[in-house]
Write a structure and sequence with these properties.
globular, 302 residues, mainly alpha, 14 helices, membrane
Length: 302
């Protein structure tokens, strides 16, 4: 387990060490990351489809996912609500009446679910146990993490400036600690050791990574639980942001977790205005960096 966790962290930090200036290369990296994500999610689904007693496993997974989603929602919203009371963020009137295409965003959010479903159907109906699938998935995961490290380093963001954004830093830390507290509360429900519960609570909405990392370490069933938990977080965030961002910006920005710097950012921008953008990017970037680190550390304790 320790070796696997170190494999999670090493390529991420290795990629973060390289500064690139070639925009064409960064575009290639972007599309390669997208392709790798769907490929590995399909492998995750393949593992789910090949499990013995799949229907019984799915019933257990449903309860685990619902428990994670509900307790994390309560803990995160409560923590972010209190943070807003302590460090209120007042928004100016929104500069734009343009609203993002919510239908397009929800349809885009279905793509990873479809990749997992396609893999599960192939594993259940078509393929027997395939040799070297785990090795292929691990190799693809290492490459993915290296490329993600490159993307984080070369996103045109100054880590120093992000850390100096007090609102963004505070939101990220509150979401992290409230999620870890929820993970501890969920130990009896999930019936796993404390470090595995904390690893499951450390996805912060980054479903394309959490499902892969947890699945590689704990097996496809837990990978599916982590994936669904973080996909549902993103879906809830898309619905929650327009409703609460005016009254409680910290709740709206923070609950989306790592997605605040990419997938939910257009909704944050359109609903809360430009003042929310640097806060959302700072919070999302820090959580994107913390998520694989925390998962790797907790999984290494097993």
């Amino acid at each position: 387990m320790l070796t696997g966790a170190l494999l999670i962290l090493a390529p991420l930090f290795l990629g973060f060490a390289f500064a690139l200036s070639n925009r064409r290369l960064m575009t290639v990296i972007h599309y390669t990351v997208e392709g790798l994500v769907y490929f590995i999610l399909a492998l995750l689904g393949l593992g789910l489809g090949q499990m013995d007693g799949l229907l019984d496993q799915l019933t257990a997974m449903a309860g685990q996912v619902l428990g994670l989603v509900f307790v994390l929602l309560l803990a995160n919203v409560a923590g972010l609500w209190l943070f807003h009371r302590w460090q209120p963020m007042t928004l100016p009137p929104s500069e734009s009446d343009v609203r993002p295409g919510y239908r397009r965003l929800f349809l885009a959010g279905l793509k990873p679910l479809l990749a997992v479903l396609a893999g599960a159907l192939l594993g259940y109906f078509l393929f027997a146990k395939l040799p070297m699938v785990d090795d292929v998935a691990t190799g693809a995961l290492m490459l993915l993490l290296f490329l993600i490290g490159l993307q984080l380093r070369n996103a045109g963001l100054s880590l120093r400036k992000l850390l100096m954004n007090r609102q963004g830093l505070g939101i990220a830390l509150v979401l992290m600690f409230s999620s870890l507290l929820a993970g501890l509360v969920l130990i009896p429900w999930l019936e796993v050791p404390w470090y595995q519960a904390l690893a499951l609570a450390s996805g912060f909405g980054w479903y394309s990574l959490s499902g892969i990392v947890i699945g590689d370490a704990l097996g496809p069933a837990w990978g599916g639980v982590a994936f669904l938990n973080d996909v549902i977080r993103e879906i809830i965030a898309l619905a929650l942001i327009p409703l609460v961002i005016t009254a409680r910006p910290a709740v709206a920005i923070g609950y989306g977790g790592a997605t605040a710097m990419d997938f939910t950012l257009p909704v944050i921008r359109s609903s809360g205005g430009l003042a929310c953008v640097p806060v959302a990017i700072a919070s999302g970037f820090l959580l994107s960096f913390l998520s694989p680190v925390l998962m790797g550390v907790f999984l290494s304790l097993g």
